[in-house]
Structure of Tachylectin 2 domain-containing protein:
Amino acid sequence: MDTVETLLFIVTRKEYVAGAGLPPSHEDDNYIRRAVPLGKLMNAFRVFFSPEGELFAVRSGDVYRGPMPSEQGLEWFSVAKKVGKVDWGNFRFILFDPNGVLYAVTGKGDFYKGPAPTNENMPWLYRQATKIGSGMWNSLRALFFDPQGILYAVKSDGRLVKRNPPTDPKDDWFATCIPVGNENWLKFTHFMAFSPDGSFWCVKDDPGYMYKWSPQAVHSNFAQKDAQSMGWGYNAGLFFAFTCDKIISSIESLEFLPDDGKIVSQGPSVLKKQTYINTSDAPLKYMFTVSETVTSSSTFSQEHGFTVEVGAELTFKAGVPFIAETEAKISINLSTSHTWNFTKSNEIKVKEQNLDLSK
């Protein structure tokens, strides 16, 4: 995969159908119609992506994570991993910064940050997150990051402001944030986000027009008059989010480079033991010969950030360490980390040695 395309992800209001496609490029580019159905996120309450393209979603107070859905009709929650429970339905905003740090605003107005959750039995809010703000954060109408990690917000009066995210509760973000123009943005908060190229996108609530500001317009405080219309009908989407195209249906080839590998661990191994008892006063001389079979084990672990379609297969051909000429075919699942172990026995004959054993 030479390039990674930016995708616009959607969950529809009707039946919670998930879909994705390239963002619209002009007003007549009907994204809603051409987005590819990818599955369902039934009763999802929040949807957000990590910078690596992993999907997170909240339902009934619990949070789940997993690869972006890739099978039409499949209920994503049935294959995703639950990594948090109860508290997640109480957050007003949940979002990642470009470095993968998770930020969340509680219903009481407190602002927290921490690592992405991995264990449903580990309370993220009380055990992993750090409080960095309090008071007014639940009054915001929108909250999002740009690709450089600057935090943007739409305040309750409609003003758009920005600043680096706060670092602790004493950091008065609201008193030091910078206004972006002087226009009212309240009607544009159905969806507000930056795409990875630095363009700014939003959806106006009624009748669902989508607008785009180029990176050049953003640098000039992106006045609303500078927006490019991307069509209408986007109020059909309950959630929108930008992510990257990392879905593959098959792997054509995979090359091992043993010469570039390294030994990560090694230790002694006893091949054979024999006890000699010398009851005389003369040195004992004995020919010791050993021929043993040792097992060499090689592990290939592929860490990747793409999603593998259900049922996709990967065929290994000649050139894989410790594998004979015959092919080995393996089915792979939805995981983003795949490990295959191959083992072949090799006989190693130790050279004959004269051992001079003295009493």
Observations:
- Helices lie at 31-34, 124-128, 173-176, 215-219.
- Residues 302-306, 316-354 have pLDDT under 50 and may be disordered.
- Residues 124-128 form the longest helix (5 residues).
